[in-house]
Amino acid sequence: MDERFKEIIAEELSITNLEEITETATFGSLGADSLDIAETSMKLEEEYEMSFPGDYKPTTLSEL
User: Fold this and answer.
1) Where are the alpha helices (DSSP H) in the chain?
2) pTM of the predicted model, to two decimals?
3) Rounded to an integer, what distance in angstroms lies between the CA atom of residue 35 and that of residue 32?
4) pLDDT for 25-50, tens place per residue?
5) What pLDDT band is residue 54 in, cutting at 50, 70 and 90?
6) Can you list the domains of the chain with their CATH numbers?
7) How close are the terminal C-alpha atoms of the chain, in Å?
């Protein structure tokens, strides 16, 4: 997991401790709701110039 990915997750989910951001962390454990997941996914799509399928619903950071 690269540093920019961690920075985006931290920024979108208001996380100050980057050690919480691991591949096995779930969005639920990070306090994210479905809107947070959607917004984070959109930010990652923009940053990495890629897109997720419309019905994609990741539950862990490794799935992203």
Assistant:
1) 3-13, 34-48
2) 0.86
3) 8
4) 999 999 999 999 999 999 999 999 99
5) confident
6) 3-63 (1.10.1200.10)
7) 10
Indicate if the pLDDT at residue 64 is higher than 90.
Answer: no
Q: Give the CA distances from residue 11 to residues 5, 20, 23, in Å, rounded to whole numbers and listed in that order.
A: 10, 13, 17
Which residues, listed in sequence order, are joined to residue 26 by a DSSP beta bridge? 60
Q: How far apart are CA 64 and CA 62, in angstroms?
A: 5
Torsion from C-alpha of 33, 36, 37, 39, nearest 10 degrees: 160
Residue 28, token pair as written in the block: 């639920």
Give the residue among 31, 29, 32, 50 at the shortest CA–CA distance from 40.
32
**17 CA to centre of own chain:** 15
At 16, list the tokens: 């100050």
